[in-house]
């Protein structure tokens, strides 16, 4: 489990270092994503309990774009219709399941199998800030009916 309060503080600090004015909405956005078990769509974010009274969808969208531009967030997903957003956290990697029909994204809830390979590759290639992400594709249970 991650400490959401501390992680939010760190994100807010990084916003300040990047010249962004810290806002209540920003703080609520970080908390919402940190508490979520999976990446979220723009609709889910703007309708979430923490954000829906805080700001409208356009404001959430602008905020997300800004956080992507300074490298704190990223967009995932197969197409525009199903764009999911997630936080980029140092030292925390995530692997994903993506449905090729509806575009939904889930996080893989299993120990990651490739850390040993990652170590080997890091050593062999001399890369720094090494990380990986795995994407598994298929048809989700909802789309099989
Ligand atoms: Zn699906
Ligand atoms: Zn992994």
Radius of gyration: 16 Å
How many individual helices?
A: 5
Globular, elongated, flat, extended or rod-shaped: what is the shape?
Answer: globular
- Number of DSSP E strands: 5
Spell out the CATH superfamily of the largest domain.
Answer: Winged helix-like DNA-binding domain superfamily/Winged helix DNA-binding domain
- Strand arrangement, largest sheet? 4-3-5
- The H-and-E topology, N to C, reads as HHHHEEEEHE
Distance between the termini: 34 Å
Beta strand %: 5-15%
- Binned, the helix content reads 25-40%
Query: For the record, what CATH class of the largest domain applies?
Result: Mainly Alpha
Mean pLDDT: 90
**Ligand list:** zinc ion
Structural class: alpha+beta
Q: What's the architecture of the largest domain in CATH terms?
A: Orthogonal Bundle
Q: If you had to describe this structure to a student in words, what would you say it looks like?
A:
This protein is globular. The protein is 39% helix and 13% strand. The chain has 145 residues and is of the alpha+beta class. A hairpin with a 5-residue loop joins strand 3 and strand 4 (105-107). The model has no long low-confidence stretch (mean pLDDT 90). The structure holds zinc ion (ZN) (2 copies). Residues 99, 101-102, 104, 140, 142-143 line the site of one zinc ion (ZN). One zinc ion binds next to loops.
């Amino acid at each position: 489990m991650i400490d959401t309060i501390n992680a939010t503080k760190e994100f807010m600090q990084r916003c300040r270092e990047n010249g962004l004015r810290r806002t209540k909405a920003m703080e609520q956005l970080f908390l919402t994503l940190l508490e979520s078990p999976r990446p979220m769509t723009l609709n889910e974010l703007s309708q979430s309990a923490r954000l829906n009274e805080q700001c409208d969808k356009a404001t959430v969208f602008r905020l997300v774009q800004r956080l992507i531009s300074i490298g704190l967030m990223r967009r995932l997903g197969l197409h525009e219709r199903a764009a999911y957003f997630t936080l980029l956290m140092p030292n925390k990697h995530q692997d994903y399941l993506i449905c090729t029909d509806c575009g939904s994204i889930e996080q893989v809830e299993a120990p990651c199998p490739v850390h040993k390979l990652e170590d080997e590759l890091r050593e062999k290639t001399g890369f720094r800030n090494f990380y990986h992400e795995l994407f598994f594709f298929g048809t989700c249970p909802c789309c099989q009916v």
